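TEACHING EXERCISE
Course module: macromolecular assemblies
Task: Read the component lines below, then compare them to the predicted structure of the full complex.
Student: A.B.
Group: 4
Components provided:
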Amino acid sequence: MEETISLKEIFETLKKRLAMILLITLVATAASGLISYMFLTPIYQSSTQILVNQSNENQQVDFNQVRTNVEMINTYRVIIKSDNILEKVQNKLDSNESVSQLDSMIQVNSEQNSQVFTVSVQHSDPEMAATIANTVASTFESEIKEIMKLNVSNVTILSKADTPMSPIKPNPMLNMAIAFVVGLMAGVGLAFLLEYLDNTVKTEQDIEKQLELPVLGVIAEMNEKQIQQSTHMSKVRAGSERFEA
Amino acid sequence: MKRKHKKAVREFKERSLITHYNSKSPISEQYRTIRSNIHFSSIDTEYRTLMVTSSGPGEGKSTTTANLAVVMAQQGKRVLLIDADLRKPTAHYTFRVSNAKGLTNVLTRQVNLLDAVSLTEVDRLHILPSGPVPPNPAELLGSRMMQELTKEALDEFDMVIFDTPPVLAVTDAQILANTCDGVVLVVGSGVTEKDAAQKSKELLVAAKAKLLGVVLNRKKMDDKNYYYYYGN
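Instructor-supplied answer key:
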């Protein structure tokens, strides 16, 4: 069946089901807000920064040296998350996290061309997050000498991880915003679906197109105002009304 | 409780007979438009027996029939409204007449037509209610007696209008459509399915009915669509 969709019809559809669309949007937003605030465990993140820098005798900055250090970071990222380090961390922490759990908590990020990289730990307990981050950093700092066969450790902890105040996940505002958009889209989609499934005659055009019969007339649906008006009229009715058309 | 019910009944009545209670309202004007259009389509043959039906229940057959009868009576015609919906009769509620004697009594020759007909509060509009609900409506409506009754009614009245059961539910409407001069199909906006309307049309055409056209009922309109020509 060939059907053209006009912009006006689209607006009509949306206007007709506006209440439903708004309701779905509101419910989705509220539900996501509720889940974010009440049910999801907040995750805290704590980070520590580590500088990679070889001590060099002469006072000049050697660019090759810097380059080497920057490229070393890629290696260090792997080392930090290696079982060798993590097992030691686990021993020091004497907590019940397994190595693989620790592995999934830890993220190593580095800026491009910078000798500093960041170790971030995400944990549901803020103090634990800081403790793990610091333990990882200190373990790494002491172990790196042995692993890389260096005389002196070439990493320095720039900033210690401290206990975060507010969780980074979940972000209720973001979740609600996403739910709002998704709810709005679902509502609009449902409105169009209902409109499409509604196979009833609505306008004179439908009748002429479908039945190919003349439309003798259109009776509007009475609204409350008119019903009241007609009942009011009937009370002040003066005898029988003659209407000669 | 009882008073509340009474009030509801009264309001329902006034709502269904808007052409009588509020003849200046836009809706009454819309009924007069329908009247005119029926009149225009009867240029060659004068339609004296009209039948109003719809594909399913709850599309506004009885309301349309009653108001159409009222506006025709207001035009100065002597009109008889016959409630041929023997399965769910409503006309006696609308016009508040007794349903003790009616169409079924006349068809079974218990009473004469004119004894069963009562005048309504609308001038020149008479009504023949359904009478007691019979077990075999279709046979009664298809009987020879029904044709005689219609003939007799036309001697007495200018117009005879039938209220009928839905086309798709039972065959009564088809039987009557075959004998009436014109058939008006009521379609409820947002109520009637397109396929149902299409099927009704086919059934009526199969019954050799003269389909005058369609009345689109219950159309949702904004207030601004109204044309208060007479002002209220």
